Structures
1.
Amino acid sequence: MSRLHILPSAISSRRQAVPSHRPTLFIAVGAGMVFYFQYEKKRLERKRIVEMSKGYGKPKVGGPFTLKDVDGNEFTEKELLGKYSLIYFGFSHCPDICPDELDKMGDALDILQEKAPNSVRPIFISCDPNRDTPDVLKAYLAEFHPSITGLVGTWQQTKDVCKQYRVYFSTPPELTPGEEDYLVDHSIYFYVMDPEGDFVECIGRQDTPESAAGIVLQHIKDWRREKKPVDTTPLPYLQKKQAVATVPQ
């Protein structure tokens, strides 16, 4: 009986001829696990900070307030519910900081509208009630982005809302002749509030429009990951645009 003899060199050649994808697969799986754990670590850290920000019994940032929008409608903290809110405190006579920050807000809002349509409500609260009348504020904000809702109040209402958001407030309660030209010291942050009205994070001057939008998008992603709803009803300025577009010519 003849026997089939296979030389060791032939076995080696045959093994080499069959490509193995196992190392590549292991690398891909390992990279995916590293990415997942890094994401989860960051997500849990964001969640921990959010929980800490809520405080015990009373929120550390945010709370009840009553103001009016530039059209004279009453606006309270309840109007913030449903969507994420991006809140900025400033004043129309601000020479440079407010315009720069509002430009940044506008660019960030365009990114957010593209990535998470109608999920974010931008708010500008005036901390200069003596000079920022509704008409003044309406004209001022129109230069930056149509989605920004401007809010004004009496001196006491403004002081109260600044206290709720831990905003430094230095505006004089009354103006005397010759004192109309003054500056207002105020905090320079975007306050990010979740759809339940809880504070989640501050966005500072060091952030770019891209990083600011990225921060908000991460919170939206975390929120939806927990199966929580976000109101995506079109913002008022888009509703107006849609209404105009549907009017027969």
2.
Amino acid sequence: MPSPDVRITIPDFMASWPTEKGWPWEARPHADSNSIKAESEQWMRSYDGIEGSFVDKIIRGRFPDIACLIYGHQTREHCLLQALIMLHFFVIDEVTDHEGDTAVREKAEAMAQALRNPGSLSSMRADTWFGVRMAADISTRYSTIGTRASWQFFVDTFIDYLDGVVDEAAARNKPILSRADYLALRTKTIGVLPGMAMALIDCELQPGFLDLDIVKSLMGLTVLILIHQNDMYSFDKEQARGEDGHNGVRVLMEARGLGVQEAMDCLGRETGDLVRQFVRLCEDLPKLEDGTDDAHFRVVRDGCVSWIIGMEVWYTQVTSRYGMLNLGKNRTYMPA
């Protein structure tokens, strides 16, 4: 842990992000943000078995704001669904952080089953864990308003995320992972790909579209950028609570014998390079031969941009969860 009189600087890895006309993508909250956030909170409080204090803690994190920033251009119905998904993600995160891997595996398997079977909520027992009931409700809502292919993409990637949550629980008390193992695990637990499915919710995806190299490249870059972005902004909170064993900053510190600032700078340079690659790809976006695939590819592009920008705004201007509000031009903070 750094000395209390040493300030840490979070590198400006977004410095190369275009601001000129022609890159008109920015995080503009949904016009109905307030009602979406209120309705999503009401949804969460409607579940039996969930304590009010737990809901209060989740709501203080302002997770529905993520949906309102990233999906501000979509319909209210779509944005609300993503707000519910964001709340569900962080319910899972908060609960499984304090459970053993056996309990986490049982919950994950039950949620996976609920996701695969839209409409299963009606047949569930009243005392079924609320996270499972949330999964069933979300899958039902998605399958009702989204295309079949988009819903399947959502379910598949959400289940991959749940598998990652189980793996993370199993690794919690083990030595810090290697960089390669950490990134492989974090790619699953970052939870971005189910959100990319939401960007495609109206799209009748053709077979093989999601396997196209260019689509996988764009999504892969986005996932890596968001992993590093989260690691840099969340490190202070996690190291203060002794939970930084699964943070990329700590992984770099251990792997290369670096101090906090050195690891931050290293991760910042790496992320800055990824951002430049992402921008180049977006600026030189190839035109796919199939017109339908090409149109959907551009939806993916816009969704990736919205995720990167939306999360940057959320970390630095919206949530106090990580203590990074108003970092200022020098982007420094005093370690907790």
